[in-house]
Amino acid sequence: MVSEWADKNRVLAGVGAAEPGPWRTDRTPYLRELMDNLSAGSEVWKQSLIAGAQLGKTESGLNWIGYQIDNAPGPFMFVLPKADTAKKVSKQRIAPLLNSTASLRKKITDRNLLSLEYLGGMMFFASAQSASDLMSMPVKDLYLDEVDRMPVDVEGEGPPFNLAVARTRTFKSKRKIYFTSTPTHESTSVIWNEGWLKGDMRLYFMPCPLDGCGKLITYEFENLKWEWGRSKETVHYQCPECQGKIYEREKTGMLAKGRWIPTRKDIENVEPGVRSYRLPSLYSPIGWYSWDEMALKWEGVQGNPSRIAEFRNVDLALPSVEISERVDWDVVWTRGDVGAQPYYMLPEGASVPREVLFLTAGVDIGQDHIELGVWGWGRNRKRWLIDHIRIYGPTTSMYTREIWDLAATEIHRTYKNVDGVELGFRKVLVDTGYIPEVVKPWVRQQNQLIVMCCDGVDGADQTFNGVKVVNQGVPVHSASGKTTKVGSIPVVMVDVSLFKSELMGSLSIPRPEVSEEAPDGWVHMPLQGGSFTKEICKQLVSERKVIERDANGGITRIRWDRVEGRRAEVLDCHNYARGGAELLGLSRMTDVHFARFERELAEAAVSIKDAADADARGAPITTPPRTKVGVIPPKSTAPVIRVAGSHAPSQTESRVTITGSDTPRRIVPLPKMPTQAGDY
Length: 680
Description:
Layout: H1 2-9, E1 11-12, E2 21-22, H2 32-37, E3 46-51, H3 57-71, E4 75-80, H4 83-99, H5 102-105, E5 108-112, E6 115-118, E7 121-127, H6 131-134, E8 141-145, H7 160-166, E9 176-181, H8 190-195, E10 202-207, E11 216-217, E12 224-225, H9 231-234, E13 236-238, E14 245-246, H10 251-256, E15 259-262, E16 274-279, H11 291-301, H12 305-314, E17 322-325, H13 329-333, E18 358-365, E19 369-377, E20 383-392, H14 401-410, E21 415-416, E22 422-423, E23 425-431, H15 436-444, E24 451-457, E25 467-471, E26 474-475, E27 483-484, E28 490-495, H16 496-507, E29 523-524, H17 534-540, E30 543-549, E31 555-562, H18 569-583, H19 591-617, E32 628-629
Parallel strand pairs: 3-9, 3-16, 4-7, 4-8, 8-9, 18-23, 20-29, 22-32, 23-24, 24-28
Antiparallel strand pairs: 1-2, 5-6, 6-7, 10-11, 10-15, 12-13, 13-14, 17-30, 18-19, 19-20, 21-22, 25-28, 26-27, 30-31
Helix pairs in contact: 1-3, 17-18
């Protein structure tokens, strides 16, 4: 194994080494697996490491070179961005490696500045700027360092990475390819596009050292916390699982217990023997690059987009992107006191503001949960987050009835406004993208005038603007590949790109000087606390708009990317609820339409007041007052749904029982996704 060879033979010289002396893999345990993958007996033939600074990534390659010369000699090519760089590396890194390692000195037969001959093979240094260097001879082992600093094209022959890899084809069954780099811009980054995205996307997980936790976590910058201007005294890492404080002195023990775990969602599409690794500078061993230094650096780059991009590349091991729209989560967290009627998120008992004229809901389906986001809509393009509920349980089969029965109860939920009027949902859009074969039959059992299937699409490639209802064909079981519209169910196509841009634009409206007067288009949030959590805020703004450009600066593509480590169910539910509001005509509503909603609510409020006054006089009215607006009537042919067991609620109850509790389980902080590949 390469790591064993390095521990036994490698001595770091003073030139170019942060810590001269015997090499110890235990100092950088995250490099052990990468080095051992390069051993002769490993099935891994191609691997990439996208890494931040001060992590020892180049040393892992040098250890491999020493191991190959000593144990598995053959033709070896070491590619660097420029000829000058190759000469410098030869003098400062390779020469000390050979001079300080006794087992290598006796095997060297000839040494030049840019080539090295040894028993059984040879190694030469190649410049990525020279096509003749890259196309000179077949090689068994290929090491490319800092591939993102190499030219895009070399002498009209194509990318240097491709030219170098082509040199290994002769040794296809025995070859090893290792390429490393800090990333650059996402659109041109070789280490990101050829390495990370084509591999199994491994991240280094470590157990949280705090008592009572022990969950596996990764180091990501968004969880590094400190008091601005006092990072030395206050910097710490917040465990994304238990929210506890982890101090840097605990890093050494955490690194020793860590392990690499693939995070790619469609790992079955990764070519056998190909691996990709990502390692931010947060993992740098104690004494090399501290969390305090990183925090100070981040404070120093504020207001300078080019330096922020460099920080993202060099410290976070992430490619830089052109962000045109993004909102920080604290903008959402701190806006609850704006408006004439601040409110709390249920179940604290606060009422829906009077300005809310109707409610819609969006439902997102996951493998082990159903989430329902409730939004209110009013005049002047204003919206309110009213509630967000998560129901736990397996969803992948209609035979797992409990979670679906609970969801059927939830869509009949009502919310009281300040006048006591109960508001139900005017539209409920349910995502069918994950398991349509389960969701569509369930929707058929509901009142389909209110509850509808939906599918999120990128409006940039569509011929509609906002929403469009289509009848998707269903497979004909007796004829493979054919579909029929007979018995199909309407599906609402929701332009999620449009609604994300609209939401981010509305969230970017400047805060008013007078907090009681919300400006047009304002997105209202509950007051802090209760069921309204920071996790909700982070999920609502969990995506950012990214612009891709060609070499001439022209826009070639616009897309929405997930912020690293974030989940997005709250945002998805918002988009579906917004689609439901658009089906009702929100963008086309005039004063006449809003006045009708207001009149309906006012009449219900008067009816409630008259009933209360009559009851106070001791002469109750004989006709029950109309106290509900927009409430979903059950589907007439559907049976009353009850959950098996003594806790089963009826459809007329305003609360739903989940796992024996009388209170719905609303959203709580969840494990961070370790990849931006998507939710499982």
